[in-house]
């Protein structure tokens, strides 16, 4: 199986990720690790030789056990940040796709065990995004009115 596109470079780490935006009844499906207050979208690293559409469809299937297709690309985010625990600098590029379910009702997925702990899933109303710790922050306002164009967002922390 191909490797994730994540590697060390002089001065830090580079990651290539993809994430899915799953919305039902004005609620978004988000994840949160036990012991961490940050919510985030379903997704993960893209594997070498895998395009971002196939990657997000694979990641969503692995995490939710439900089949979704990538409807369209909403955002390309270039994120420059420092990991708090290790103080390692990171340059990450992430694609955000609006996902389409092949079922009429999307079930809340069961918790999953990852190497970093248990991940639980939550339906959060779009109007409540400003009240929670949710990354990336630009999605808090960006998901209030989804436009027809793809946006490029650069964040330097």
Overview of this protein structure:
The protein is mostly beta strands. The chain has a single domain, classed as Nucleoside Triphosphate Pyrophosphohydrolase, CATH 3.90.79. It has 2 helices and 11 strands. The protein has helices at 52-64, 138-142, and strands at residues 6-9, 12-21, 23-24, 27-33, 39-45, 68-82, 89-101, 112-114, 117-125, 134-135, 151-156. Strands 1, 2, 3, 4, 5, 6, 7, 8, 9, 10 and 11 form an 11-stranded mixed sheet that branches. Strand 3 (23-24) and strand 4 (27-33) form a beta hairpin. The longest helix has 13 residues, at 52-64. The radius of gyration is 15 Å and the shape is globular. 22% of the residues are buried. The model has no long low-confidence stretch (mean pLDDT 94).
The parts where pLDDT drops under 50 for at least 5 residues are none
Q: Oligomerization state of this entry? A: single chain
Task: Tell me the domain tally.
Answer: 1
| Name given to the CATH architecture | Alpha-Beta Complex
Q: Return the string of H and E elements.
A: EEEEEHEEEEEHE
Specify the number of helices.
2
Mean pLDDT: 94
Strand fraction equals over 45%
Query: CATH top level?
Result: Alpha Beta
Could you give me the name of the CATH homologous superfamily?
Answer: Nucleoside Triphosphate Pyrophosphohydrolase
State the helical fraction: 10-25%
- Taking Cα atoms only, what radius of gyration do you get, to the nearest Å? 15 Å
Q: Report how far apart the termini are.
A: 34 Å
The major beta sheet can be summarized as: 11 strands, mixed
